Structure formats: structure tokens, C-alpha cells
Amino acid sequence: MSKADQRDNAAIDHGVHTDPAALDELTEAAEHETTEVGADGAVAGYRAGRTLRLGVELRRQLRRRRTQLLLGFVALLPFILVVAFEIGQASPNRRSGGFVDLATASAPNFVILAMFVSGTFLLPMIVALFFGDTIASESSWSSLKYLLAIPVPRHRVLRQKAIVSGLLSAAALVLLPLVSLVAGVIWYGSGDAISPTGDAVPFSDSLVAILLAVCYIVVQLAWVAGLALLLSVSTDAPLGAVGGAVLAAILSQILDQITALEGLRNYLPTHFSFAWMDLIATDVDWTNMANGVLSAVLYGTAFTLLAARRFARKDITS
């Protein structure tokens, strides 16, 4: 009896109706299939560097509704502030007061206000959302284990997702002052930046100051990114990871207001959050900014290393 007859009889015995020609094709393909193994033990042709490429992950995150809504809100916020000032009784000729009072004095002042009012909650929330949601969301969708089974090395999954989260966070942090500057020029003109101390910084110099301020904010929020990433690899609930990082930022800001803590406040990660405001002056003091960068880098590095260690040892079940 031929092999084809044997397969037909076996199929009949088990009540399976399969095309004999299809079975022959599958059998022939299986006989010619070879699995070559490279020197590193991986299947020939497999390259870890080709898995989960940045472009693929970035496009995937950009297509998500939460990314689109968040970036849309950031772009809309300056216009909401403009409407609020138009409804109110702000004086464009005001030359004294705090940053809120000076917001309509010029476009640079309006940018400073937008960064100031969003620095307490919105900016940390943006970073926490992108970093806290990155791994935890894969776990909540039960897709993380399949991603690792491709296989994509764990360190590569964490690195690629962290890089994409960093790019999206930086884009949002740059988008806010950029749109604010455009809106400010249209409504309030390109005048000098007026500081609460009365210093007048020329428009061109104020643009450099704003650029340095944005760079400082990006670096300073590294501690939020590291903490959110640590929480993201520690839980399967994205909301818990994002909320935990935001609550930590709020708690740190509350403690920073308690003057009884005295020098201990210098060790809080948010103590130097608004050190960038020192840039709006004719004589810039870099001390607080340097301390803020050092604090953020130390906290961010520690949290990121803990996240990498946790993810490398974690039992992935979802």
C-alpha cells in the first residue's frame, strides 16, 4: 500500500476529510524543510536588531487615540489661555507683577506663562502617561508574552519602548511652547520678555532662553520617566503605573512647600522644577539649574536601572 493510500485510510478512520493532494504538498514541504542554527544558537537569519524597530513602534504609538488626543490638547492649550485673557481684563502694557500679570506683555511672556501653569501637573502627567503606559499596556492586552516569543529580547523591548516614549514626551514638551509662541506673536506681538524683577530681555535673547528652558524641563522630568517606567514593568495596570508616577510628583511638590523641612527639600525631585525661570533675567544664575539637572539625572538613572532589573527577572504571564 502506498503512502497516499495509508494517509487516505487514516483520514477515513478518524473521520477527517482532507484533500490528498494538499497532504502530499505539506509532506513534501516538511521533508525539504531544514532548520539551520547559527553560532549563537539562533535560527539562521534571525537578527535581534531587526525586531521591534523604532519606526514601527513609533508609528504604532502615533496611531493610538490617547497619543493623538494628548498632542491635540497640548496644541489647543495656548489658545484656551488666549481666550481666558481676552475674556478677562489683562493689560498688554503691564510692566510689573508676577508672570501671570505679565503674560500679555509680549509673546515670550505668554510662552513663559504657558510653561509655568502646565509645569505643576500637565507636563509631569504627559511624561508619566507615555512611559507608564508603555509596558503595562502590553501586559493588559496580553500581548507582551507574544512579543517576547517572536522572540524580541527583553532588554530590546524595554529600550525601544523607552526611546519611543522619550521621543513622544519630548515632542509634546516642545509643542507647547512652540504653539504658545505662535499664538503670542499673533495676539501680543514680539516684544521684550519682562521678568517680575523688571529686567527686559530682548526678543531674540528670550527665544534662546525659552529653548534652554525647554531643554531643562525635558531633562528635569527624567525622574518622572524613570519612575513611570519602573511602575510600568511592575504592574499589568497602565492606569496604576501612570497614576503612581503622577501622585509621586504631586506628593513631592506638596512636601516642597513645607518650609519646616528646610534643607531636606533640596533632595526632593521636584524642588528645582521651576529653576528654568532664572533664565528670564539679564544676569542668569545657573546654580539652581545645575542642581536640578544633577538631581533629575540621578533619580532618573536609578529608577531606569531598577526598571531594567525588574523587567529582566519578571515572570511574564500576560
Walk me through the structure.
By secondary structure, the chain is an all-alpha fold. The protein has one domain. It contains twelve helices and two strands, in the order ααααααααββαααα. It has a two-stranded antiparallel sheet. Helix 6 packs antiparallel against helix 11 (238-256), helix 8 runs antiparallel to helix 9 (203-220) and helix 10 runs parallel beside helix 12 (287-313). Residues 10-17 have low confidence and may be disordered.
Overall domain count: 1
Strand content: under 5%
The dominant shape is elongated
Strand order of the largest sheet: 1-2
Proportion of helical residues? 55-70%
Mean pLDDT: 87
Q: How many separate helices?
A: 12
Give the beta-strand count: 2
Q: What string gives the helices and strands in order?
A: HHHHHHHHEEHHHH
Radius of gyration: 28 Å
Global structural class: mainly alpha
Query: What can be said about the biggest beta sheet?
Result: 2 strands, antiparallel
Low-pLDDT regions: 10-17
Distance between the termini: 49 Å
